[in-house]
Structures are given as structure tokens and as C-alpha cells.
Amino acid sequence: MSILTIILNILLPPLAVFMKHGLGSTFIISLILTIIGWIPGVIHAFIVND
């Protein structure tokens, strides 16, 4: 995992997921989790972008 990915996982979790997986169900889940709460979005981004 690069430094850029780690920074994006923390600051903009949906963008980090989009860069790795594109538009799809993973991106939508990340977007919803980030809207509900920032921390769940960050956790999901780190798990998905492992």
C-alpha cells in the first residue's frame, strides 16, 4: 500500500476505493459508510484496499 493510498484512505475513503476498484458495489458501500460516519468509511477503505 503506497503513501498516497494511505492518505486517501484517511482523508477521502470513497476516492481511495474508487481508484482501486472503480465504480461498483464496493464504492457504493464505501460512500454510504462515509456518509453515515467518517470512521466506518475509513475502516472499510483500509480493509478493501489491503
From TrEMBL:
GO terms for cellular component: membrane. Keywords: Membrane, Transmembrane, Transmembrane helix. It comes from the Bacteria. Belongs to the UPF0057 (PMP3) family. This is YqaE/Pmp3 family membrane protein. The chain crosses the membrane at residues 26-48. Its main location: membrane. It is found in: Membrane. Signal peptide: none annotated. Pfam families: Pmp3. The keyword Thylakoid does not apply.
